Q: What sequence folds into this?
């Protein structure tokens, strides 16, 4: 996550330092053991480990360590979720400065889930 955050920071021209809004969507593989009716849906809410708050903490730490944000205390708004899905798995993160929401100058990054999961387990 820190590497992806660093790359986004370089593309953006430095760290975001204002009040921030962050969204995170974690997509885990859906176990084969799910009933056919559930698998047919393609995506369902994940209600098992890892804890969402630990995943979020790991991503926030990675955003700061990679230099995309000055520090995670700047996050004033956030939305996050975790799902089980068939297809692409990973985490999608979007970071925006609140005062620039009317200007689509948004720093976005996508990183493989394994980096975020590894960091969350270490906390």
A:
């Amino acid at each position: 996550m820190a590497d992806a955050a660093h790359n986004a920071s370089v593309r953006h021209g430095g760290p975001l330092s204002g009040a921030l809004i962050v969204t995170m969507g974690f997509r885990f593989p859906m176990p084969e053991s799910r009933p056919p009716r559930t698998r047919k849906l393609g995506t369902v809410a994940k209600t098992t480990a890892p804890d969402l708050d630990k995943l979020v903490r790991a991503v926030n730490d990675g955003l700061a360590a990679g230099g995309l944000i000055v520090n995670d205390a700047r996050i004033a708004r956030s939305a996050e979720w975790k799902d089980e899905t068939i297809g692409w798995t990973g985490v999608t993160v979007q970071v925006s400065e609140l005062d620039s929401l009317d200007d689509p100058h948004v720093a976005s990054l996508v990183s493989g889930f394994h980096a975020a999961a590894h960091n969350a387990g270490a906390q």
